Amino acid sequence: MTSLASLVLGLFVFLKGKDKLANVTLGGVAATIGLWCFGQFMGEMVVGRGAVLFWTRVGVAGAIFIPVLFMHFIFALLGRADKERSKIYAVYGAGMFFLIMDLTPFFVRDVGPAPGFRYYPQPGFVYPFFAAFVAACFVYGFWRLFRAYRGSAGERRNQLLYMVLASLIGFLGGLTSFLPIWGISFPVLSHFALPLYVLITVYAILKHHLLDISVIVREGLIYSALTVLFAGFYVLAVLTMNYLFSHLVGFNPALAVLLVIFISVLVFQPLRDRVQKLVDRIFFQGEFQYIKTIHDLSEENRRLFRSLLQADKLAALGTLSAGMAHEIKNPLSSIKGMTQVLEENLNDPDFILKFQDIVPRQIDRINGLIEKLLKSGQPQGLSLAEVDLNRVIEDVLGLIEAQCRKQGVTLVKQLSAVPRIMGDAEQLSQALMNLALNALQAMPAGGTLTIGSWRQGAELVGVEVGDTGTGIPEEKLDRIFDPFFTSRDEGTGMGLAVVYRVIKEHGGEIQVESRVGKGTRFSLWLSIRPKRSV
Do the strands 385-387 and 421-423 form a parallel or antiparallel pair, or are they unpaired? Predict the structure, then answer.
């Protein structure tokens, strides 16, 4: 039962998020638990020491990668997979070593009687190192989970709480499976603890939207129930109709099958609707119209995001206005100087030509600055079109150049030739503007602001915004994209939340790296032809 439940859970998680590392690794954890339990099951079913030893090694092969994939899942869940690559490579390397050893007597040399078991693994000299490896992986993963839990809030805190509990129960229960190997008479609780681990994980998925796969689990429950009911209905109907046709009516029994198929088509949709209501009533607290609910929530979410987007634009507009006052003041000074001496130079052709050249040009310059500011403040919906990303970056840099000079910040452009992407130029401009303004605020005494673009393979375009400012403390990195979270007294906490949502709406990804006192770098990846996100 544990094996089947784990394999089903792993399949659900994997199918929902093949492109998401957390889904893939959690699916792997569930699958390896399933393989381990299946090996133990077969070891109890077969006869003969040789067959038991074979299935024991199959089960151990699954057990070897439970701690490996558990560690990888924890790093992926906490958004630390890229930064912890060395640790991930190390645990996978250890896992491969133990897997190779599993084929030899150095790992499991034989099977023999143990307290409560007909046959149980007899360890080779490598096995104690594996037990220490399992303990180290789970203790470290549990510690990282618990630390993230203490620093989190809201729904994220609830998600991590259930993962902490599930991991603790699974680890303590799994630990008891090592005891009979060394002749310790203690009940093996792994077959009770691991189903509980699976149950808690499923509950976290359904109740607290862990990995956002509650809809597919719901559909799985619905169609599993349908399969059982429909199979029973089909068999019963075929047997009944076959009896009636062959004994009472005298027609060909094959007609019974055709009639049952016809009836099945008619009853399938009403049966599905009833099963869906039953599953919703039992597992989802009577929420029957969940498709409509999800749609309504999505629309409300879009409206709230538009309001947040506009409020953030106005906040950025105020910051830009202060920085551009100097830019407007310079051409005004030129115009004022020319008009003050105009009267006494009306008869000077050279002065008149110079006046006709300078004054309109300076007025156009002021007009262009004002138009950019007004355009930045206009409310916009998401409107996808071909976007020249380098042009968007150049426009953003044009708006912040004055502020950079005022603060003594060196502006470095590293723009490569990149293809046009499908996106909303205004929203992408706002996202990049927020990142640039954040960088300037982190460098009040000057520094270097670097903005670059490059092509990442055949499908992606990358953008980087880096600064040499104060940096972000590690304990705050997990929360910087939360709405209204800010570390500055004058901040609103909306800027990075808007950046995150804009990039996600474009089907992109965002990553941040920061060191206190060294600076911060934001990396964005945008698909050339994105799948629009809700």
Answer: antiparallel
Reported as half-sphere exposure (CB side, CA atoms, 13 A), residue 343 has a value of 2
Q: How many CA atoms lie within 13 A of 22 on its CB side?
A: 13
DSSP 470: S
E-assigned strand segments in 416-498: 421-423, 447-456, 460-467
**DSSP, res 471:** -
The residue ranges of every structural domain in the chain are 2-212, 217-284, 303-527
Beta carbons of 490 and 471 less than 8 angstroms apart: no
Q: Give counts: helices (H), strands (E), the chain.
A: 15, 9
Nearest CA to 470 among 434, 495, 439, 491?
A: 439
Tokens of 174: 């799994």
Beta 409-415 vs 385-387: how paired, if at all? unpaired
> Residue 220: is its pLDDT beyond 80?
no
Instruction: Look at residue 534 and tell me whether its pLDDT is greater than 50.
Output: no
Lowest-pLDDT choice from 31-40, 104-113, 160-169, 427-436: 160-169
Report residue 502 as tokens.
Answer: 């804009």
**Token pair of 50, please?**
């040789």
Mean of the per-residue pLDDT values of the chain: 75
**Whether the model pTM is above 0.70:** no
- The residues, any chain, with a CB within 8 Å of residue 50's CB and separated by 6 or more, are none
Q: Round to whole Å and give the CA distance between 125 and 114.
A: 18
Q: What is the DSSP-derived secondary structure letter of residue 178?
A: G
C-alpha to C-alpha distance for 497 and 502, rounded to whole angstroms: 9
Which residue has tokens 């995150």?
500
**Per-residue confidence band for 235, with pLDDT thresholds at 50, 70 and 90:** low
Q: Does domain 2-212 have CATH number 1.20.1070?
A: yes
Mean pLDDT of 444-461: 88
Q: Which CATH number, 3.20.20.210, 3.30.565.10, 3.30.70.360, 2.40.30.20, labels domain 303-527?
A: 3.30.565.10
Alpha-carbon span 198 to 217, nearest angstrom: 13
Does the pLDDT of residue 187 top 60, yes or no? yes
In whole angstroms, give the CA distance from residue 97 to residue 64.
10
Closest CA to 63 of 90, 31, 20, 85: 31
* Residue 462 DSSP SS3: strand
Locate 239 and state its tokens.
């047997």
